[in-house]
Amino acid sequence: MSNTLYRKYRPKNFSEVIGQAHIVRTLGNSIRNGRIGHAYLFTGPRGTGKTSIARIFAKAVNCAASASDEGADAEASIRRSEAKADACLECKSCKSIADGQSLDIIEIDAASNTGVDNIRELRETVSLPPTSLRYKVYIIDEVHMLSGGAFNALLKTLEEPPSHVIFILATTEIHKVPETIISRCQRFDFTRLPIDDIIEKLSAISTKEGVTIEKEALEMIAISAEGGMRDAESLLGQIISLEDKNVTAKEVKEILGTTDREFVSMIARKLIENDTTGAIADLNKMVADGYDLTTFAKSLLTYMRELMLLLVDESLGQGLKRKMTSEQLEIMIKVAQKSELPKIIEIINLILEAQGKISAFLIPQLALEIAFIKATRTFPAPAREEKKEYKTQETKKEKTDNIIKEPSPAYDSKSAKSKESVKETENEIAADFADSGTAPDIDDVRNNWKRLLVDIRPRNHSLSALLSNCQVMKIEGSTITCATAYEFYREKLADPANRLTVEDVFSSILKSKIRIDIVTDKSLAPKPAEENADENSKEGEQSSLLSSALELMGGEVVA
Ligand SMILES: [Zn+2]
User: pLDDT tens digits, residue range 204-263?
Assistant: First the structure.
């Protein structure tokens, strides 16, 4: 089934060929002008139309309606427009070639075991005139697979080709073809097809096959075929045979096992915008959805490379048309315009570094998370107006927000600007709360403090005890500052996991997203006199605090 579509929709004429315009034009001109060469070499990636064009050429040079034929069939000549090099497809020779019945079109697959024998036969029969056609056409596919002996035999024939013979050699590996052969041929370099062209053809095929297929699904098929029409058609055939008459992007994604390009570009943009939280949240969502991280890292790397090329010179983007739709390319150019080359290179280096560690880490996403944090912390964020444009993309702030927003000391020193941008973001958040009119004030915080201690207890008993030793100092924007007398308690409370719990519980009590900042204030330490005065309650609290602190540290009281 997989190659059925390819055969069914194979171009029958030059005018039906998609892409390879320069080749079609040159070959067409040679036919129109009656200047037919004796040896052609078609080189290029698989599935780009080499054999199809070889067959079309064989038909065109032999068509009874051919302009160069003195005894041309008058009727056929009329059918064949003088401006076109296309064969008529109706005459006896066209039909015999299309049916594969003609003895004068000899196709040899040099990759097969019979290839060598075929070449030997070729030497013996090449001088014999064609049986019914004007030209005997030898199409030798995968010519680089020929043995040294076979190449020599072929070379001898190419040196003095009989006038009725045309050779069309095709190869995917030109570097394996001897220079002596190459130099005797007219060489044509086939290129991968632009994604847009492949999509257009796939879309036409789907319509003819009565299948509805989502545009995004066609894009994915075309992209994964990497510019080869045969592979694209074969993939489409497989998918059509598996699915019903209505193919969705989701189904294709599952079949191809590819990482969604949109997803990759979304994460890439977040990295460029220094949106650490967003990028990590997306990464974790991907892990939860069961994506393969190694494949993802490769896709992300590819995306960053493409951005890098665009940043070096937009003309380098021309090559990208064979890897993405023009719509995707347009989006990428916009992203590139907002990026800086050093930042992109830094991201690429970090992903490369992480790539090899993905499978080595117990937590597969950890290597990428570290790379993401480094990538978003070492460079200043883009200008704020630009950042706003993507703001709609940022969904609700994740819980992890507060842990990550705090620049790690390692990067603090590297870039003061990065710290500034964090400050800016914080101010933005604060401003957001002020705008919404729901920002809690100091009284709200103090009045709800007891409730925090109660609500947090079931989640973390020790944390509740630690908090009971804290005092609310102030609230600025969304940041609540609490003080404790002891550095040791401050450290425990500032521990990301603990702080996250506190912020989470308190945010839901206050119905507003808040941050907690813990400071040390030695003046809060209970004075010995006070302790004695209020012995019953204080002592109990202190000892519970001690055991809680030990619990948190995993220690025990040594008596
Ligand atoms: Zn014809």
Answer: 999 999 999 999 889 888 888 878 888 899 889 888 887 678 888 888 877 776 666 778
- Does residue 424 share a domain with residue 460? no
Geometric angle at alpha carbon 232, from 262 and 290, rounded to 5°: 40
Burial of 216 by CB count in 10 Å (0-12 exposed, 13-18 middle, 19+ buried)?
A: middle
Distance 66 CA to ligand 1 centre (A): 7
Examine residue 13 and state whether it is found in any structural domain, yes or no: no
Going from the Cα of 28 to the center of ligand 1, the distance in angstroms, rounded, reads: 15
Helix/strand/coil for 430:
helix
Of 408, 434, 460, the last residue of a domain is: 434
Residues with CB under 5 A from ligand 1 (ion): 63, 87-88, 91, 94
Collect all residues with Cβ–Cβ distance below 8 Å to 83 and sequence separation of at least 6.
none
Strand-by-strand arrangement of the 471-476 sheet: 471-476, 479-484, 515-520
User: Which residue in 49, 53, 13, 8 sits closest to 237, CA to CA?
Assistant: 8
Instruction: Work out whether strand 165-171 and strand 186-189 pair parallel, antiparallel, or are unpaired.
Output: unpaired
Domain check: are 27 and 161 in the same one? yes
Beta bridge partners of 483: 471, 519
How deeply is 324 buried, as exposed, middle or buried, from its count of CB atoms within 10 A (0-12, 13-18, 19+)? buried
In a domain, 4, yes or no: no
Range of the domain at 473: 442-553
Boundary (domain end) residue, out of 189, 212, 232 = 189
Instruction: Count the helix, strand and coil residues of the chain and give each as a percent rounded to the nearest 5.
Output: 60, 10, 30
* CA 133–ligand 1 middle distance (angstroms): 11
For position 118, which CATH number holds? 3.40.50.300
Centroid of ligand 1 to alpha carbon of 26 (angstroms) = 20
Instruction: Give the three-state DSSP class for 136.
Output: strand
The pTM assigned to this predicted structure is 0.56
Dist. CA 93 → ligand 1 center (Å): 6
| Beta strands, E only, 92-200 | 105-109, 136-141, 165-171, 186-189
| DSSP β-bridge partners for residue 109 | 141
**Can you tell me the distance from the alpha carbon of 326 to that of 24, in angstroms, rounded to the nearest whole number?**
23
Ligand 1 midpoint to CA 61 (Å): 9
Hey, what amino acid is at 508?
S
Q: Tell me how far apart the alpha carbons of residues 548 and 463 are, in angstroms, rounded to a whole number.
A: 8
Confidence grade of residue 509 (pLDDT, cut at 50, 70, 90) = confident
Between CA 484 and CA 479 the distance in angstroms is 16
Q: What count of other Cβ atoms lies within 10 Å of the Cβ of residue 282?
A: 20
Residue 73 alpha carbon to ligand 1 centre in Å: 9
